[in-house]
Write a structure and sequence with these properties.
The protein has 541 residues and is an alpha/beta fold. Helices cover 52% and strands 17% of the residues. The protein has helices at 2-8, 16-38, 53-72, 79-114, 124-136, 153-160, 162-178, 203-218, 246-262, 273-292, 332-342, 345-365, 379-382, 387-398, 417-430, 446-449, 461-464, 474-485, 498-507, 523-534; strands at residues 143-150, 186-188, 193-198, 221-223, 226-228, 232-239, 268-270, 298-307, 313-324, 328-330, 372-377, 405-409, 433-439, 456-459, 489-493, 511-513, 521-522. Strands 8-9-11-12-13-14-15-16 form an eight-stranded mixed barrel. The longest helix has 36 residues, at 79-114. The radius of gyration is 38 Å and the shape is elongated. The chain starts with a helix and ends in a 7-residue tail after the last helix.
C-alpha cells in the first residue's frame, strides 16, 4: 500500500498506512513467540509445501504488490511488469523445490531423532513419548516396563570388533521384535539396553513373557562364522504400582536389573521396595567406606589355626572388620563386594596386609613363637601389576620373614591361568606361601590345580557342614586325599563341633579353624588368648 500510494503521489506521513506498518512490526514480534510454543510438537506438517502458511503469506503479499504495480500502469503489460512477473514465477518455482527437499530432510531428521539408526527400534526419546501417551490415554490403566541388558557385551566388542557387536545388536533387536508376534513396542535406550512395554501387570503374565524373551535370546548367535551365547538380565517395573512417570518406572526397573546382575543368573527380577532400600544402603556404604580407613573404622581380627592332632596353635588368619559409629558392625560379605566394585579393595587390602604383618612381628618381638599369618587377597588385588612389589615392600617395612606369611587367594585366579602362575612363582621366589581359599566352590579343575605353585588348600565351610550330626562325607574325604596326594597342606575352616574335628582327623586333615577353637577376635583379645595358652608352656587348647 505504501508503494501504491507513493506511485499515486497520495502518501502522507502519519496516515493509516504508517499505523498498519507499525502493527505489522508488532505481528512479526509475535511470530517468534508463537513459533517458540509450536516447536514442541513432534508431528510433521502433512500439508503440501505450496499450501503452508509460511509459503502462502509472503508470496500472496508479492502477488498483491504485483497487481497494485500493474494497476498503477492502467493494466498495461510492459517489459518491466513482465520481467517482474517472470522473476516472481522463477522464485516461487525454486522455493517450491527447496521446500520439498527440506520436507524430505525434515522427515529423515525426525526419524533419526526418534529411532535408533542401527536397529531401527525406537530410541530413548521415542520411549519417553510412548510412555507419556500411555499415561495420557484414559484406557491405559496398567502396563509393565521390561528392561533388558546384555551380559558382557563389551567383551564381544573387544574380542571380535564393533562390527560384529553391531550385528549382534541387530540380531537381538530382531528377536525381541518378533516376541509376542511383534505386537509390542520395543526400544533400544542404551548401548546394550532394550525396553519392551507390555500392557499387562499380572506378575505371572510378566514372568511368562520374560521367560519367552530369555528363551529367544538363549539360542546361540552365529555371525560371521562366530558362534556364541548371549545371556541377559532383566528388571521389571509395573505402572502405577512402581511409578507414575517414565523416569520413575525406568529407575525402578534399573534397580531390579542391578539386583538381577548381582545374583549372577540369566534371570529377571520384579521391582520391590526392598530392592530400593538395598540400593540406598549400598550407596550409603559406598560413600562411608571411602572414609572408613582415614577415620580408623576398620580393624583386623585374628582367628587361630590349630593342629587337629596336637591342639597346638600353628597359625592365624587375619580378617578385616568394619564397625561404623552409626551403622554398627558391617559384615565383610556386604562391604567387600562394594570395595571391589569401587576399586577401594586395593587400598583396603594393602592396609590389612601391612597391619597384620606389623602385628605378627610385634607378637614375635614379645616372645611368642612365630605363627604363620594368613591374609586374604582379593582377585582384583592379585591381578594388580604392582602386587608382588607391594608384598615385598610391606615385608621389608615390617621386618616380617616371608616364610611367616601366607596369602589366601580364591579359585577365580584360574580364569587367567598364565598370568596367575607367573604371579604365584614371583611370590614363591620372595618366600611367601600361597593357599587356595574356599576350595571346591569356584573354578578349580584338577588339570589346573596341578599347575599352580601353591602350598595349601582350604576346604570351604559348606563342605565341613556336611559332617554335622555324625554323618560322613565322601566328598570331604576325597578333597583331603587329593590335597595330600598333591603334597599340599589341607586346612578345614568352619569347624564348630568336636565331632567334625574327629572325622577330619580320621580323614587325614591336619589343620583346622573355626568357632570350636575361637571366633575371630581383635589383636588385644588374641594377645590375651596367647597369654593364657603361654602360661601352660605350650600353645595347646
Amino acid at each position: 500500500m505504501f508503494s501504491y500510494f507513493s506511485t499515486q503521489q497520495t502518501y502522507t506521513a502519519g496516515g493509516f498506512v504508517d499505523y498498519i506498518w507499525t502493527t505489522a512490526l508488532l505481528l512479526i514480534g509475535f511470530t517468534g513467540y508463537r513459533y517458540s510454543r509450536s516447536i514442541s510438537s513432534h508431528e510433521p506438517n502433512k500439508k503440501l509445501p505450496l499450501l503452508q502458511r509460511e509459503f502462502l503469506f509472503p508470496y500472496l503479499s508479492i502477488i498483491l504488490l504485483t497487481i497494485l504495480m500493474i494497476e498503477s500502469y492502467d493494466w498495461r503489460i510492459n517489459s518491466l511488469s513482465f520481467g517482474w512477473f517472470l522473476i516472481f514465477v522463477m522464485i516461487i518455482t525454486r522455493q517450491s523445490f527447496v521446500m520439498i527437499k527440506n520436507k524430505k530432510l525434515f522427515t529423515e531428521l525426525q526419524h533419526l531423532a526418534y529411532y535408533d539408526p542401527l536397529t531401527q527400534l525406537g530410541n530413548r526419546l521415542n520411549f519417553i513419548n510412548t510412555i507419556d501417551r500411555y499415561l495420557t490415554n484414559e484406557s491405559t490403566t496398567r502396563f509393565a516396563l521390561i528392561l533388558i541388558n546384555l551380559n558382557r557385551f563389551k567383551m564381544i566388542n573387544d574380542a571380535l570388533g564393533h562390527r560384529i557387536g553391531d550385528d549382534v545388536l541387530k540380531e537381538v533387536a530382531s528377536r525381541l521384535s518378533l516376541t509376542h508376534n511383534g505386537s509390542l513396542p520395543v526400544f533400544r535406550i542404551g548401548g546394550d539396553e532394550f525396553v519392551i512395554l507390555v500392557e499387562n501387570d499380572c506378575a505371572v503374565a510378566c514372568e511368562d513373557f520374560t521367560s519367552t524373551v530369555i528363551q529367544a535370546l538363549h539360542v546361540p548367535f552365529v555371525i560371521s562364522d562366530h558362534e556364541f551365547a548371549v545371556k541377559t538380565n532383566i528388571g521389571i517395573s509395573i505402572y502405577p504400582k512402581h511409578g507414575e512417570n517414565a523416569e520413575d518406572l525406568l529407575k525402578n526397573a534399573s534397580t531390579a536389573l542391578h539386583h538381577s546382575k548381582t545374583s549372577g543368573k540369566n534371570d529377571f527380577i520384579i521391582y520391590s521396595e526392598r530392592l530400593e532400600s538395598d540400593v540406598l544402603r549400598k550407596m550409603e556404604l559406598e560413600v562411608q567406606l571411602q572414609k572408613a580407613i582415614e577415620l580408623n573404622q576398620l580393624s583386623v581380627h585374628y582367628q587361630p589355626k590349630v593342629h587337629l592332632q596336637t591342639k597346638t596353635i600353628v597359625g592365624m588368619e587375619a580378617l578385616v572388620r568394619w564397625e561404623h559409629p552409626h551403622l554398627g558392625m558391617i559384615s565383610p560379605v556386604e562391604f567387600i563386594p562394594i570395595a571391589e566394585e569401587t576399586g577401594l579393595i586395593n587400598e583396603i587390602g594393602e592396609w590389612v596386609l601391612r597391619t597384620a604383618c606389623a602385628q605378627s612381628k610385634q607378637w614375635q618381638a614379645s616372645g611368642y613363637p612365630p605363627l604363620l599369618l594368613s591374609v586374604n587377597v582379593s582377585a582384583l588385588q592379585f591381578q594388580n601389576r604392582h602386587f608382588c612389589e607391594v608384598v615385598s615392600s610391606i615385608l621389608l617395612e615390617t621386618h616380617l620373614q616371608p616364610n611367616h606369611l601366607e596369602l589366601e587367594i580364591t579359585e577365580s585366579i584360574v580364569q587367567n591361568i598364565t598370568e596367575s602362575v607367573s604371579i604365584l612363582k614371583k611370590l614363591k621366589k620372595i618366600g611367601v606361601k600361597c593357599s587356595i581359599d574356599d576350595f571346591g566352590t569356584g573354578y578349580s579343575s584338577l588339570s589346573v590345580l596341578e599347575q599352580l605353585p601353591i602350598d595349601t588348600i582350604k576346604i570351604d565351610k559348606s563342605f565341613i557342614d556336611r559332617l554335622s550330626r555324625g554323618s560322613r562325607s565322601p566328598m570331604v574325604k576325597t578333597i583331603i586325599e587329593l590335597g595330600l596326594n598333591l603334597q599340599l597342606n589341607v586346612v578345614a575352616e568352619g569347624i564348630e563341633s568336636p565331632n567334625q574335628s574327629t572325622i577330619l582327623k580320621e580323614y587325614g586333615c591336619s589343620i583346622g579353624q573355626g568357632y570350636l577353637f575361637s571366633k575371630p577376635i581383635n589383636a588385644q583379645h588374641f594377645t590375651e588368648l596367647l597369654d593364657a595358652l603361654y602360661q601352660k608352656n605350650e600353645f595347646v587348647f
